[in-house]
Amino acid sequence: MCGIAGVMDLVGRRSVPHEIIERMSLALYHRGPDEEGFFIRPGLAMASRRLSIVGLADGQQPMHNEDKNVSVVFNGELFDYVEKRVELAARGHTLVTHCDTEIIPHLWEESAEGMFERLRGQFAIALWDERQQKLTLGRDRFGISPLYWTRQGDWLLFASEIKSLLASGMVPAIPDRRGIDHVFTFSALPGPITCFEGIQMLPPAHFLEVLPGHSHGSPSIRERRYWDMDFPDAGQENPETNAKTLVDEFEHVMLDAVGKRLRADVPVGSYLSGGVDSSMILALACHLRGKSISTYTVRVNDPKLDELDAASMVAKFIGAPPPVVQEFNHEDAISTYPKLIAAAEAPVIDTSCASLLQLAQKVHECGQKVVLTGEGADEWLVGYPWYKAAKIIGFLDAIPGLRISDKARRAFLRFSDVPQYPASFRARTEANVGGPNAWIDSYGLLGLAKLRFYSDSMHTVRESTDPWATLGMNLDRAKKWHPLNRGIWVAGRVTLAGHLLQAKGDRVAMHSSVEVRYPFLDEAVFDFCAKLHPDWKLRGFRDKHLLRLLAERWLPPSIYKRGKVIFRAPLDSFHLEPEPPYIRQLLSEDSLKRTGYFDAATVQHWRKTYGSLRATSLPRLSIEMGLAAVVATQLWHHQYIDGSLCDLPSQARTGPLVTI
């Protein structure tokens, strides 16, 4: 794992000043403190920061083919590199290292852009083909490894993190209000839009082909998709009805996925929450590697959210060492949030991300570089509670054309004194994702905060753009899927790629130089789950049904029967007494007017009165989420755009975000 960055002259062969690419590399130091490498050509400079995990002695980047006319900088891991190396050598390629990166230029020689369909793992790649005078940038299927790019006049810049682009001195930090609206729509940034004007995220499963103008006339920048999540037509899913047959097959693909992600020249640990997902990963890892795998967990000082007892019980049952524990409380949320926003480069509403930032720091302090985790199981096997709610609501629409569920939703919001969108809003949203979808209601809870808190200028953005329309779903295919699979697509495209793998995954882990690996995101695991009949995912109201059947072979009943616990820290940490001074400053009338995103009077009103609403009620939860989003947005603006909205306490300071 590492960080990559680069600058290309699109119209000529002007040399990139070395101090620019050095600054970009330095801004990514946390992603790769072990080694630094540069690739310099007329009109092009690329940098790599390496976290040494595979090929410790000979994995230095950039890497090349035999003739050195194909050169690569690479962030990530290719988990089938052992097999690929053997195949390439059998076909006459000469490989001289023990590192996975080296297979990339050779696969490019054979398949060019078709290479991406052959890669298996988590990756962001920058490849220069000297013969074609072409730069190609690409990302993995699910968006595990980040990659951003921007065109600034006649220059194209790319990097693993936005702070590297800003460090170049060539990219101004200007807010893009569309990105902020996406955060308030999805509690995530699925891309390509970011919160920075002119900076795009390369979407998962896409590559960018860049042809500079000095060899091909006018410069050409073309983005292409090489893969998409797909599912069988409704009624054409895997017809297998024998549970043992399916569990055996699922067990086989999961063991293979975990085994490949244990490949490393350094020890591999595992996050452990005590839920069925991470517990299964640990059980399979210990089966393959032995019982000495270190585990790490967070303890939240709220009995309803604390999972330490479950995690400890799982480790004892499997025979793994007791979990290393990171404590997390209200004060930690307040002091860690500035560091979280600095790491994530966007407003983050999910308070649990701050605890995972601290957990990754604990992993680093323990000398560990790699951990496994269970993200992906909830997405592929519908582990979120709103799928069950959608199933119940679906019963209301048994009579075609009446849409009783819409009337019931609107009546409930009206009764709860919660603002709501026009009746046409839901129909338009459903049309953008191929039909009814369980995630619309889930995201809608935060989306209601727009109606309360947005300023007039943000309402203009809200009314003129539609975040759902930017997701790029293949509607012709989606209309043929079972509704449950349409939800899986949205979960993978938005919550997984835009949140769990970024603000809760790569960004907080790599902030402490820790690589996270995701067995449930193995390509074969997705393909297997995608073809399953929906009943194996949600059987009645039992979520992750097939995974729980598999877990019966490996885990105690209290774990495989355990319901979904959404890991989060309390949302009201920012508004407890005594009020943190920097929060008061961020939400002052002056600061709110200077950013211009939110209506200052409304924010002040709800800060004073939300506590009088019934705890856990829909109105209070909606306001708490909205206020958390306002705080996160103001803090992002302070750290990346303005810098004068508040005085951060010493323990919350992040230091310079950009080195220039």
Automatic annotation (TrEMBL):
UniProt xrefs under InterPro entries: Asn_synth_AEB (IPR006426), Asn_synthase (IPR001962), ASN_synthetase/amidase (IPR051786), AsnB_N (IPR033738), GATase_2_dom (IPR017932), Ntn_hydrolases_N (IPR029055), Rossmann-like_a/b/a_fold (IPR014729)
GO terms of molecular function: asparagine synthase (glutamine-hydrolyzing) activity; ATP binding
Pfam families: Asn_synthase, GATase_7
Superkingdom of origin organism: Bacteria
Site residues, Important for beta-aspartyl-AMP intermediate formation: 375
Enzyme Commission number(s) from the entry: 6.3.5.4
UniProt similarity note: Belongs to the asparagine synthetase family.
PANTHER family: ASPARAGINE SYNTHETASE (PTHR43284:SF1), ASPARAGINE SYNTHETASE (GLUTAMINE-HYDROLYZING) (PTHR43284)
Residue ranges of domain Glutamine amidotransferase type-2 in the record: 2-213
Classification via Gene3D superfamilies: Glutamine Phosphoribosylpyrophosphate, subunit 1, domain 1, HUPs
Matching SUPFAM superfamilies: Adenine nucleotide alpha hydrolases-like, N-terminal nucleophile aminohydrolases (Ntn hydrolases)
Positions annotated as active site in the UniProt record: 2
BP GO annotations: asparagine biosynthetic process
Catalytic reactions of this protein: L-aspartate + L-glutamine + ATP + H2O = L-asparagine + L-glutamate + AMP + diphosphate + H(+)
NCBIfam families, alphabetized: asn_synth_AEB (TIGR01536)
Organism in which the protein naturally occurs: Prosthecobacter dejongeii
Residue positions binding L-glutamine: 100
Keywords per UniProt: Amino-acid biosynthesis, Asparagine biosynthesis, ATP-binding, Glutamine amidotransferase, Ligase, Nucleotide-binding
Binding site for ATP: 298
Coiled-coil segments: none
One GO CC term, this protein: cytosol
Protein name, as recorded: asparagine synthase (glutamine-hydrolyzing)
Pathway(s) of this molecule: Amino-acid biosynthesis; L-asparagine biosynthesis; L-asparagine from L-aspartate (L-Gln route): step 1/1
Signal peptide span: none
